[in-house]
Every structure is written in C-alpha cells, then in structure tokens.
C-alpha cells in the first residue's frame, strides 16, 4: 500500500513539474515577444533650448587647462573658424553618479570618432572642485569648460545632458542621456536625419 501511494505521489509530482515547465516556456515566449515589440528608447529630448536643426550661439571660451575652445559655428578646440568639425557637448557635474558612469564611454567615443568629432565637457561651479575631478577621473585629454552662460544658453536643467553639433554649429541631436545606448542614439538620430530615435520609430510605425 505504501509503495502504491509513493508511486502515485511521484506521478503527481512529475505532472506538476511538467506543468511548471510548460508555464515557464510560455512565459519565456511572451517575454521574447514583448521584447521585440518594445522599441529602444533613445535620449530624452527636452523642449527647452535650441531646437534640432537650429544654429546655436557662438561661444569663445577657455578650458580648465587653458586651451581655447569655440562652441557653435565652425567651432573647434583651437578657437579657429572653418575647420568644420562636429562637437559632442556633454554637461556634467562631479556630484552626478550617472555622469561618472558615462565618462569611460565618452573617452572611448573620443578615441573612436577622433577624425570628425570633438568631445567637450561642460559644467559650472567652483574651479578647484572641477580641477580635482579632472585629476581623479583622468579627464585631462578632454576639454573641460566652466561656464554658467553656456548652461543657460542651452537650457540645461538636468544632468547628464548632451548635444551633438555639426561643423556649422547646428544642433543635430540632443537630450538627457543616462546610459551608453542613449548617448549612442544621438549619433544614430543624426545619421537618420531625425530629432530622435523614438520619433523615427513612431514615424515608421505610422507610415
């Protein structure tokens, strides 16, 4: 009798295990379908500041290390006009954890896109605090600007915030960037000629 009860219990357990496996497989399939349907989100565009396709004011500034930097029309790291290089302007703060996480990505971007792009860091506040930040994080290769006026001009209210400017000082992409994918989305949006990845996907879905 005991053997028969044990056999019945084992059989019931086997049925339960098989049922659980079927449920898990079904859930996995649904998660896969949901993943395919959810569109990748790019940088979060803000309505304030210069719009996509708009020329930005020209700024003649000096980086922490003394090098001249021109932001805007025909900007460059040497202050000269006419070099036509694009600029990735990244607003950050030494107290911003997400900004710190993106610093290796910015360094890699600078190295990979050096032929056509200047990566420029921007912030404001006490100079000594930023000099320590640059030394601690190994940012000496990147121009580091301290300019309250720059943040006001671009209406930077939250960090980290990035703008991609072409050689004529026109905004090609911008937005809040919290990870590498959102930062990369600025370049993708610029290549596609669209304000943002989400705008492109929405337009494609509507069409």
Automatic annotation (TrEMBL):
- Which InterPro entries does the record associate with it? Thioredoxin-like_sf, Thioredoxin_domain
TM segment ranges = 6-28
Q: Sorted alphabetically, which keywords does the UniProt record give? A: Membrane, Transmembrane, Transmembrane helix
**Domain Thioredoxin: residue ranges:** 50-192
* Listed Gene3D superfamilies: Glutaredoxin
User: According to the lineage, what is the superkingdom?
Assistant: Bacteria
Q: From the UniProt annotation, give the residues forming the signal peptide.
A: none
Query: What protein is this chain from?
Result: Methylamine dehydrogenase accessory protein MauD
